[in-house]
Write a structure and sequence with these properties.
alpha/beta, binds adenosine monophosphate, 10 helices, 3-stranded antiparallel beta sheet, globular, 281 residues, 38% helix, 6-stranded parallel beta sheet
Protein backbone atom coordinates (compact mmCIF):
# COMPACT_ATOMS: atom_id res chain seq x y z
CA UNK A 1 0.00 0.00 0.00
CA UNK A 2 1.32 3.37 -1.05
CA UNK A 3 1.04 6.23 1.46
CA UNK A 4 1.11 9.65 -0.22
CA UNK A 5 1.09 13.03 1.47
CA UNK A 6 1.57 15.36 -1.52
CA UNK A 7 -1.24 16.37 -3.87
CA UNK A 8 0.83 16.27 -7.06
CA UNK A 9 2.12 12.79 -6.17
CA UNK A 10 -1.48 11.57 -5.71
CA UNK A 11 -2.50 13.05 -9.05
CA UNK A 12 0.47 11.44 -10.83
CA UNK A 13 -0.11 8.06 -9.21
CA UNK A 14 -3.80 7.95 -10.10
CA UNK A 15 -3.25 9.35 -13.61
CA UNK A 16 -0.67 6.61 -14.23
CA UNK A 17 -3.03 3.91 -12.93
CA UNK A 18 -5.81 5.16 -15.19
CA UNK A 19 -3.45 5.38 -18.17
CA UNK A 20 -2.66 1.71 -17.49
CA UNK A 21 -6.34 0.90 -17.89
CA UNK A 22 -7.11 0.51 -14.18
CA UNK A 23 -10.46 1.58 -12.70
CA UNK A 24 -10.15 3.85 -9.67
CA UNK A 25 -12.28 3.90 -6.54
CA UNK A 26 -11.98 6.91 -4.23
CA UNK A 27 -13.03 6.84 -0.56
CA UNK A 28 -12.84 10.27 1.08
CA UNK A 29 -12.72 10.17 4.90
CA UNK A 30 -11.60 12.16 7.90
CA UNK A 31 -9.89 9.10 9.36
CA UNK A 32 -10.37 7.47 12.74
CA UNK A 33 -11.61 4.62 10.61
CA UNK A 34 -14.38 2.30 11.78
CA UNK A 35 -16.51 -0.42 10.19
CA UNK A 36 -18.61 2.17 8.34
CA UNK A 37 -15.57 3.57 6.55
CA UNK A 38 -14.14 0.10 5.98
CA UNK A 39 -17.34 -1.05 4.27
CA UNK A 40 -16.74 1.73 1.73
CA UNK A 41 -13.09 0.70 1.25
CA UNK A 42 -14.04 -2.95 0.78
CA UNK A 43 -16.72 -2.02 -1.74
CA UNK A 44 -14.31 0.23 -3.67
CA UNK A 45 -11.68 -2.51 -3.68
CA UNK A 46 -14.18 -5.09 -4.91
CA UNK A 47 -15.63 -2.89 -7.68
CA UNK A 48 -12.44 -1.15 -8.84
CA UNK A 49 -8.84 -2.09 -9.62
CA UNK A 50 -7.32 0.49 -7.26
CA UNK A 51 -9.01 1.71 -4.07
CA UNK A 52 -7.63 5.05 -2.90
CA UNK A 53 -8.57 6.24 0.58
CA UNK A 54 -8.11 9.86 1.57
CA UNK A 55 -7.70 10.78 5.22
CA UNK A 56 -7.96 14.49 5.93
CA UNK A 57 -9.63 16.29 8.81
CA UNK A 58 -10.88 19.25 6.80
CA UNK A 59 -10.78 22.46 8.84
CA UNK A 60 -13.14 24.23 6.40
CA UNK A 61 -16.10 22.10 7.41
CA UNK A 62 -15.83 22.75 11.17
CA UNK A 63 -17.46 25.80 12.76
CA UNK A 64 -15.49 27.95 15.22
CA UNK A 65 -17.11 26.27 18.22
CA UNK A 66 -16.85 22.73 16.80
CA UNK A 67 -14.41 19.90 17.47
CA UNK A 68 -11.73 20.37 14.77
CA UNK A 69 -8.79 20.35 17.22
CA UNK A 70 -10.26 17.52 19.28
CA UNK A 71 -11.49 15.42 16.34
CA UNK A 72 -10.08 11.90 16.85
CA UNK A 73 -6.95 11.17 14.82
CA UNK A 74 -5.14 7.82 14.77
CA UNK A 75 -3.17 7.58 11.56
CA UNK A 76 -1.18 4.46 12.48
CA UNK A 77 -4.31 2.43 13.19
CA UNK A 78 -5.99 3.90 10.10
CA UNK A 79 -3.21 2.78 7.76
CA UNK A 80 -3.43 -0.80 9.03
CA UNK A 81 -7.22 -0.85 8.76
CA UNK A 82 -7.21 0.67 5.27
CA UNK A 83 -4.64 -1.83 4.03
CA UNK A 84 -6.52 -4.73 5.65
CA UNK A 85 -9.67 -3.66 3.79
CA UNK A 86 -8.04 -3.56 0.37
CA UNK A 87 -6.78 0.01 -0.05
CA UNK A 88 -3.80 0.29 -2.39
CA UNK A 89 -3.29 4.02 -2.00
CA UNK A 90 -3.82 6.21 1.06
CA UNK A 91 -3.61 9.99 0.75
CA UNK A 92 -2.86 11.73 4.06
CA UNK A 93 -2.03 15.35 3.28
CA UNK A 94 -1.10 17.86 5.97
CA UNK A 95 -3.42 20.87 6.18
CA UNK A 96 -0.92 23.19 4.45
CA UNK A 97 -0.76 20.81 1.48
CA UNK A 98 -4.48 21.15 0.84
CA UNK A 99 -4.66 24.80 1.88
CA UNK A 100 -1.24 26.47 1.49
CA UNK A 101 -3.14 29.76 1.93
CA UNK A 102 -6.67 30.38 3.13
CA UNK A 103 -8.71 29.51 0.00
CA UNK A 104 -10.62 32.38 -1.63
CA UNK A 105 -12.81 29.94 -3.55
CA UNK A 106 -15.69 28.09 -1.96
CA UNK A 107 -18.15 25.64 -3.50
CA UNK A 108 -21.74 26.34 -2.45
CA UNK A 109 -24.57 24.00 -3.37
CA UNK A 110 -27.68 26.15 -3.05
CA UNK A 111 -30.94 24.80 -1.68
CA UNK A 112 -29.64 21.56 -0.20
CA UNK A 113 -27.27 23.10 2.32
CA UNK A 114 -29.24 25.64 4.34
CA UNK A 115 -31.53 23.12 6.02
CA UNK A 116 -31.10 20.26 8.54
CA UNK A 117 -27.32 19.94 9.16
CA UNK A 118 -26.74 23.19 7.32
CA UNK A 119 -29.09 25.07 9.66
CA UNK A 120 -27.30 23.71 12.73
CA UNK A 121 -23.81 24.01 11.22
CA UNK A 122 -23.65 27.15 9.04
CA UNK A 123 -20.95 26.88 6.38
CA UNK A 124 -20.40 23.18 7.01
CA UNK A 125 -21.45 22.02 3.56
CA UNK A 126 -19.46 24.74 1.79
CA UNK A 127 -16.42 23.24 3.51
CA UNK A 128 -17.47 19.72 2.53
CA UNK A 129 -18.20 20.63 -1.10
CA UNK A 130 -14.93 22.54 -1.41
CA UNK A 131 -12.73 19.71 -0.13
CA UNK A 132 -14.61 17.07 -2.12
CA UNK A 133 -14.23 19.19 -5.27
CA UNK A 134 -10.48 19.41 -4.61
CA UNK A 135 -10.24 15.66 -4.07
CA UNK A 136 -12.27 14.96 -7.23
CA UNK A 137 -9.94 17.27 -9.19
CA UNK A 138 -6.87 15.49 -7.84
CA UNK A 139 -8.29 12.01 -8.40
CA UNK A 140 -9.76 12.51 -11.89
CA UNK A 141 -12.21 10.06 -13.41
CA UNK A 142 -13.22 7.52 -10.80
CA UNK A 143 -16.04 6.07 -8.76
CA UNK A 144 -16.31 7.81 -5.39
CA UNK A 145 -17.83 6.00 -2.42
CA UNK A 146 -19.90 7.85 0.17
CA UNK A 147 -21.94 6.55 3.10
CA UNK A 148 -25.69 7.00 3.44
CA UNK A 149 -24.92 7.73 7.10
CA UNK A 150 -24.38 11.33 5.97
CA UNK A 151 -27.47 11.41 3.76
CA UNK A 152 -27.55 15.17 3.26
CA UNK A 153 -23.83 15.21 2.44
CA UNK A 154 -24.43 12.48 -0.14
CA UNK A 155 -27.10 14.60 -1.88
CA UNK A 156 -24.84 17.67 -1.76
CA UNK A 157 -21.92 15.74 -3.29
CA UNK A 158 -24.12 14.20 -5.99
CA UNK A 159 -25.53 17.60 -6.92
CA UNK A 160 -22.09 19.20 -6.98
CA UNK A 161 -20.61 16.40 -9.13
CA UNK A 162 -23.47 16.80 -11.62
CA UNK A 163 -23.49 20.61 -11.65
CA UNK A 164 -19.72 20.91 -12.11
CA UNK A 165 -19.40 17.96 -14.53
CA UNK A 166 -16.87 16.03 -12.50
CA UNK A 167 -15.98 12.76 -14.24
CA UNK A 168 -16.96 10.96 -11.06
CA UNK A 169 -19.67 8.41 -10.40
CA UNK A 170 -20.90 8.88 -6.84
CA UNK A 171 -21.71 5.52 -5.23
CA UNK A 172 -23.97 5.42 -2.14
CA UNK A 173 -23.19 2.77 0.50
CA UNK A 174 -25.59 1.59 3.24
CA UNK A 175 -25.24 2.64 6.88
CA UNK A 176 -23.19 0.27 9.03
CA UNK A 177 -24.51 -0.06 12.60
CA UNK A 178 -23.31 -1.47 15.90
CA UNK A 179 -25.24 -4.59 16.99
CA UNK A 180 -27.56 -2.42 19.15
CA UNK A 181 -28.47 -0.19 16.21
CA UNK A 182 -26.21 2.81 16.84
CA UNK A 183 -24.75 3.96 13.52
CA UNK A 184 -20.94 3.67 13.51
CA UNK A 185 -19.35 7.13 13.79
CA UNK A 186 -15.94 8.49 14.67
CA UNK A 187 -17.73 10.69 17.21
CA UNK A 188 -19.16 7.70 19.11
CA UNK A 189 -15.86 7.48 20.96
CA UNK A 190 -16.64 10.81 22.67
CA UNK A 191 -19.67 9.25 24.39
CA UNK A 192 -19.49 8.40 28.09
CA UNK A 193 -20.87 4.95 29.06
CA UNK A 194 -24.36 6.26 29.95
CA UNK A 195 -24.51 8.38 26.80
CA UNK A 196 -23.39 5.43 24.69
CA UNK A 197 -26.25 3.36 26.10
CA UNK A 198 -28.92 5.95 25.34
CA UNK A 199 -27.50 6.94 21.93
CA UNK A 200 -29.43 4.01 20.44
CA UNK A 201 -32.48 6.25 20.83
CA UNK A 202 -31.75 7.74 17.41
CA UNK A 203 -32.17 4.39 15.71
CA UNK A 204 -35.20 3.60 17.88
CA UNK A 205 -36.80 6.91 16.88
CA UNK A 206 -36.23 6.19 13.18
CA UNK A 207 -37.45 2.61 13.47
CA UNK A 208 -40.55 3.68 15.43
CA UNK A 209 -41.53 6.18 12.78
CA UNK A 210 -40.81 3.66 10.01
CA UNK A 211 -43.11 1.16 11.79
CA UNK A 212 -45.85 3.80 12.10
CA UNK A 213 -45.56 4.45 8.38
CA UNK A 214 -45.77 0.73 7.66
CA UNK A 215 -48.89 0.70 9.87
CA UNK A 216 -50.54 3.34 7.68
CA UNK A 217 -49.48 6.69 9.23
CA UNK A 218 -48.61 8.95 6.29
CA UNK A 219 -48.70 12.40 7.91
CA UNK A 220 -45.27 14.01 8.05
CA UNK A 221 -46.13 15.98 11.19
CA UNK A 222 -47.13 12.85 13.07
CA UNK A 223 -44.06 10.89 11.94
CA UNK A 224 -41.89 13.82 13.11
CA UNK A 225 -43.75 14.03 16.42
CA UNK A 226 -43.20 10.33 17.04
CA UNK A 227 -39.45 10.60 16.46
CA UNK A 228 -39.19 13.70 18.66
CA UNK A 229 -41.17 12.01 21.45
CA UNK A 230 -38.90 8.95 21.37
CA UNK A 231 -35.77 11.11 21.62
CA UNK A 232 -37.40 13.21 24.37
CA UNK A 233 -38.00 10.03 26.41
CA UNK A 234 -34.23 9.87 27.05
CA UNK A 235 -33.19 12.63 29.48
CA UNK A 236 -29.56 12.44 28.29
CA UNK A 237 -30.57 13.21 24.70
CA UNK A 238 -31.32 16.72 23.43
CA UNK A 239 -33.09 16.74 20.07
CA UNK A 240 -31.76 19.02 17.37
CA UNK A 241 -34.15 18.00 14.59
CA UNK A 242 -36.39 15.15 13.49
CA UNK A 243 -37.56 15.45 9.88
CA UNK A 244 -39.37 13.54 7.16
CA UNK A 245 -38.01 14.67 3.81
CA UNK A 246 -37.96 14.04 0.12
CA UNK A 247 -34.84 11.83 -0.28
CA UNK A 248 -33.26 13.92 -3.06
CA UNK A 249 -34.38 17.52 -2.46
CA UNK A 250 -34.58 17.13 1.34
CA UNK A 251 -37.72 19.25 1.36
CA UNK A 252 -39.96 18.42 4.35
CA UNK A 253 -42.96 16.30 3.37
CA UNK A 254 -46.49 17.01 4.51
CA UNK A 255 -47.39 13.43 3.69
CA UNK A 256 -45.35 10.43 2.60
CA UNK A 257 -46.29 9.11 -0.82
CA UNK A 258 -43.56 6.91 -2.27
CA UNK A 259 -39.98 7.27 -1.04
CA UNK A 260 -38.99 9.43 1.93
CA UNK A 261 -36.03 9.85 4.26
CA UNK A 262 -36.32 10.14 8.02
CA UNK A 263 -33.47 12.21 9.50
CA UNK A 264 -32.60 12.92 13.13
CA UNK A 265 -29.87 14.77 15.01
CA UNK A 266 -29.40 15.04 18.77
CA UNK A 267 -26.80 15.93 21.36
CA UNK A 268 -25.62 13.55 24.04
CA UNK A 269 -23.69 15.82 26.39
CA UNK A 270 -21.29 17.68 24.10
CA UNK A 271 -21.45 15.01 21.37
CA UNK A 272 -23.75 15.63 18.43
CA UNK A 273 -24.86 12.56 16.48
CA UNK A 274 -26.93 12.16 13.31
CA UNK A 275 -28.78 9.23 11.79
CA UNK A 276 -31.31 8.56 9.03
CA UNK A 277 -33.38 5.85 7.42
CA UNK A 278 -35.06 5.34 4.07
CA UNK A 279 -38.79 4.54 4.07
CA UNK A 280 -41.44 4.13 1.41
CA UNK A 281 -45.10 3.40 1.06
P1 LIG B 1 -16.17 10.83 7.74
O1 LIG B 1 -14.82 10.28 8.07
O2 LIG B 1 -17.07 10.95 8.92
O3 LIG B 1 -16.08 12.10 6.92
O4 LIG B 1 -16.87 9.75 6.80
C1 LIG B 1 -16.26 9.34 5.60
C2 LIG B 1 -17.26 8.55 4.79
O5 LIG B 1 -17.65 7.39 5.53
C3 LIG B 1 -18.53 9.33 4.48
O6 LIG B 1 -18.94 9.05 3.14
C4 LIG B 1 -19.51 8.79 5.48
O7 LIG B 1 -20.85 8.89 5.09
C5 LIG B 1 -19.07 7.34 5.56
N1 LIG B 1 -19.53 6.74 6.81
C6 LIG B 1 -19.32 7.19 8.06
N2 LIG B 1 -19.96 6.41 8.96
C7 LIG B 1 -20.60 5.45 8.25
C8 LIG B 1 -21.45 4.36 8.59
N3 LIG B 1 -21.78 4.09 9.84
N4 LIG B 1 -21.92 3.59 7.60
C9 LIG B 1 -21.62 3.85 6.29
N5 LIG B 1 -20.82 4.88 5.91
C10 LIG B 1 -20.33 5.66 6.87
Amino acid sequence: MLVIDRADALRKQLDAARAGGLRLGLVPTMGSLHEGHLSLVRRAASECDVAAVTIFVNPLQFGPSEDFAAYPRDIDADLGLAEGSGAEVVFVPPVDEMYPDAPRTSVHVAGLTEILEGASRPGHFDGVATIVAKLFNLAGACRAYFGEKDWQQLQVVRQMAADLSFPVEVVACPIVREPDGLACSSRNRYLGPAERTVATVLHRALSGSASALAGGERRGAELRRLMAATVASEPLAALDYAEVCDPATLRPLEAVEGDARLLVAARFGSTRLIDNMGVSC
